[in-house]
Structure prediction request, 188 residues.
Amino acid sequence: MKTYAILIVLLVLGGFAAGCISSGTSPGTSTTQSTGPAKYAVINGTKIYFNELHFYMYGMKTCPHCRHMHTVIPLTFGENSLTYYELVGNATNDEIFKELSRLTGISGVPAIGITYQGKLRGVIEGEFNVSATPQIVYQAMKHSGVFLEVGGEWYILPYNDTKSQVYIEQLYTIFVKNQLPKTNQTSS
Prediction:
């Protein structure tokens, strides 16, 4: 499974390095449309609409990486594209973040959940190049799962795996609902 995840990551990262998300046409797979009412990127013939992306971020006002992501996400995807959960001085968010850490190993901020069309598609620890978001979403859809990046390692949580489904539901509850997952779902 880990070999499969590494192969997927190499393909995804290779696409990022090749600059496959651009303002024009790049060789083979991707274009970005930025005129008209809905911006989108085309990845291998699939349109990823920016207005259907939403980001959920746990962060700290004292963290420069969090402040950067808090600025760049809305600039890139629209002012309503980000829901931000402050950890400093917020005991509820801190408790939820500790559960996120226990479930995934994420220990740093920003911790970002990405949804597309209301479905969780990615969870990323730390600052990342947001222009790669359409490619991340496309790869998650292609592999019918959720991409999880922790400490520089990428994994796929497949929707068709029972154990992964539990984790995906828990991550969805943490990011989208900003709640602790039900304890009867928690797996060790």
In short: The CA atoms of residues 100 and 171 lie 7 Å apart. The chain is about 35% helix and 25% strand.
